Amino acid sequence: MWKQLKRVSIPVFSGDVKVYENWKAAFLACIDVAPATPEYKLLQLRQYLSGEALKVIENLGYSATAYQAAKDRLDRKYGGKRRQIALRFEELHEFKPIRAGNAKDVEHFADLLDITIINLKDYGLYSELDSKLLYLVLCKKMTESMVTQYQRWVRENGKEESIEVLREWVIKEAEYRTRAHEAIRGVSDLVLSVGLIISQGGEQGHL
Fold first, then answer.
1. What is the pLDDT of residues 9-23, one digit of tens each?
2. Residue 13 three-state SS
């Protein structure tokens, strides 16, 4: 069965903090757990680093001890719970308010909200999910009509306003708006819009 799985491609990491955790997960799954010596794994590690990231470990040598030291250095500079959560909050704060009638804005907001909550749970920061300030910041990203619809949905379904309940509603709303957009303008138009966001490195793409 394992032979049928498609080989995972490890990207080259050059120092972008935003992609470090994804790069690290790929490297650990493909190289770190492999039945090879630490010295060989260090050689592999160097192949998947460039620029600033490579400079972080280039003076460590090639010993078994150096391999662990290299991973530790990379974690200190680019990883860590605090840094990843700060990045998620930064993305949310920088996200521009949703434009009325714009399906891709709602979809992008749903994605940001989803990954933020997942990260908070992964790192055990459940208290942040009860943050009233964060909740208000998120609500202000929506249009007035969206907030009205959300609050009506909360009351009609006997729920209490919270970040997780907001995520549930936004994800449903994004799905409905995407379907409506596809029905009116066609699938290709929406795919082109979303593809533009991805090609721009995850930026919101407001003009």
1. 889 999 999 889 889
2. strand
